[in-house]
Amino acid sequence: MVKTVSIIGSTGSIGTQTLEVIRELNEKGADIRVIALSAGNNVGLLLEQAREFNVKYLSIVREKDAETLRENLRDINPEVYSGDEGLNRIAEIKTDLLFTAIVGMRGLLPTITAINAGNNIALANKETLVSAGSIVMNLAKEKGVIIFPVDSEHNAILQCLDAGQKKDVKKLILTASGGPFRAFTKEDMYKVSVEDALNHPTWNMGGKITIDSATLMNKGLEVIEAMHLFDMDAEDIEVVVHPQSIIHSMVCYKDNSVIAQLSMPSMKLPIQYALTYPDRMESRIPQVSFAEIGTLTFEEPDLDRFPCLKYAYEAARTGGTMPCVMNAANEVCAESFLRGEIPFMTISEIVKKVMEGHKSLPSPDLEDILMCDLEARRTAGGIIDGYVR
Fold first, then answer.
1. What is the sign, positive or negative, of the torsion defined by CA atoms of 48, 13, 156, 290?
2. What distances in angstroms separate CA 205 from CA 15, 63, 157, one per listed residue?
3. CA 334 to CA 140: how far, in whole Å?
4. pLDDT at residue 387 tops 80
5. Is residue 47 pLDDT above 60, yes or no?
């Protein structure tokens, strides 16, 4: 198997795991060549990655870090870019598969750039489809580009859909771990610390995604993402809490047969499937031992304690620019919580206020999306300033 790969966000959680999987697959005889990488501020790690994989195109946020890369990689002499322009330059370099692995709305424009360049996308950035799902999916269809889901839940659905025909699908069932506060009372959740929220029981993820998992906003974003990826209505996408994180998602067909994808909780498996699709290769992820696990449990999500999931469903039903506004407010709030500026439960309260103040545009273009995203961030920031003062 010969394949070229680029990664936007190579020094983050998904990016580093993607490079680990590429290293493992190449040791087994694959020939996956990393041609382009981008990073935020971790210039030291990007240097190591570029040298190990002999990468010819690099991008990093700050120009002074770009100079560091040029100075220290003279022997392999890569083209090095910086800033948003550099991010888009990496996205448009022709490759077999581009991993969009940066967190937040910042992933939208590079994804659109990559699609316009004809690059297939391994999507690990929920916010792209949450904010501009119709625009992105229509553009991908127009350009003949495949968008391959890397999120474990959507990757699992993709695998489950092999069991039947799309026309026979009745319902998608997304599983949620429940996060670190699954058993907490609502009152206790007002008192939790940043460290408490980052202590996820089953997954090792980046900070923002871990906070979204703790509020269940992550699952709400995944509901909207699944709508666009699999052309389903919100009413036909169910969320069930499954603390063991062994079943990653399920598909219910019209005869009420339910097909599930099970594996140990590791992002390396969906990453590997994205790299090898439609083939499979041996994996270092251990097989599930049902005897050792013993019991798999399920429960309904509590929308009173975790209202972000409820707001995501409301945004999905409203459509237009409402999902973009919800996402923008949540990004600002999650970052503010991580800085210790607002209490945990305030995240959902501010998201609700921002959504209530927004009149959704029904058929937005990209300019509308970017405008509403910016306005929602300003509104959320203004509310947060009141808390901080």
1. positive
2. 11, 28, 21
3. 30
4. no
5. yes
- Distance separating alpha carbons of residues 389 and 80, to the nearest angstrom: 42
Q: Centre a 10 Å sphere on the Cβ of residue 360 and count the other Cβ atoms it contains.
A: 16
**Residue 33 has what pLDDT?**
98
3-state secondary structure at position 16: helix
DSSP secondary structure code for residue 312 in this structure: H
Q: Is the pLDDT of residue 389 over 80?
A: no
Helices (H) and strands (E) in the chain, counts: 17, 11
**Strand order, beta sheet including 147-149:** 79-82, 57-60, 31-39, 2-8, 97-100, 121-123, 147-149
CB contact at 8 A, 12 and 31 = no
Distance between CA atoms of 364 and 152, rounded to whole angstroms?
Answer: 29
Q: In what order do the strands lie in the sheet with 169-176?
A: 237-241, 169-176, 247-253, 258-262
CA atoms within 13 A on the CB side of 241: 18
204: DSSP letter: -
Q: Which residue ranges make up each domain of the chain?
A: 2-149
Tell me the C-alpha distance between 373 and 312, whole Å. Answer: 16
CA distances from 277 to 145, 246, 259, 272, 345 (A): 15, 21, 19, 8, 40
pLDDT value of position 388: 64
**Crossing angle of the two packed helices 322-338 and 366-388, in degrees rounded to 10:** 40
Which residues are 81's β-sheet partners? 59
- How large is the average pLDDT for residues 346-361? 97
Query: What mean pLDDT is predicted for residues 73-79?
Result: 96
Residue 104 pLDDT = 87
Mark 184-205 as b/e (b = at least 16 C-beta within 10 Å): beeeebeebeeeebbebebbeb
Return the CATH architecture of domain 2-149. 3-Layer(aba) Sandwich (3.40)
What helix, strand, coil percent values describe the chain, rounded to 5? 50, 15, 35
Phi and psi at 319, nearest 5°, equal 70, -160
What does the pLDDT read at residue 203? 73
Task: Name, in order, each residue with C-beta under 8 angstroms of 381's C-beta and a sequence gap of 6 or more.
Answer: 332
